[in-house]
Amino acid sequence: MTGRSNEALRVADAEVAINPNYAAAYSYRAVAETNLGRFEQAKADLQQAMRLSPLDPRMGAFLDKLGWAELGLGHFDAAIEASSKAIQAGSTVYFTYVCLATARAQRRHRRGEIGVD
Fold first, then answer.
1. What total number of domains does the chain contain?
2. Domain for residue 30, yes or no?
3. pLDDT tier at 2, thresholds 50, 70, 90
4. Is 115 within a domain?
5. Which residues of 75-111 are buried (b: 16+ CB within 10 A; e: fewer)?
6. What is the DSSP string of 40-55?
7. Cβ neighbours of residue 83 closer than 8 Å, sequence gap 6 or more
8. What's the whole-number average pLDDT of the chain?
9. Can you give the pTM of this predicted structure?
10. CATH number reported for the structural domain that contains residue 32 in this entry
11. CB-based contacts of 13: which residues, under 8 Å, 6+ apart?
12. Integer distance in angstroms from the first to the last C-alpha of the chain?
């Protein structure tokens, strides 16, 4: 799923360099990083976005993206928490619910509560 993620990452890097106080730029960069499998960096960028703009109307989107980064890292409880907070913050995109359901299923699988058919 890298598509044009390398190009998107270059653009987002430039955007952060131009205005390091623009929270959304970190979120945009996190999307590219997640698509490239760079989950730790995506998580760090999303945390920076939330620090820069704690009352941002895009907080639900930031949290949704954080859930995916946590899922990629195998941090299922953290992915559940981020996705749940995204929903509470008003995220209505289905990706948030997919992340939440996937993290819950993976957590159950890891605990041996469900098997693979």
1. 1
2. yes
3. low
4. no
5. bbebbbbbbebbbebebeeeebeebbebbeebbeeee
6. HHHHHHHHHHHHH-TT
7. 63, 64, 67, 96, 97, 99, 100, 103
8. 94
9. 0.91
10. 1.25.40.10
11. 29
12. 26
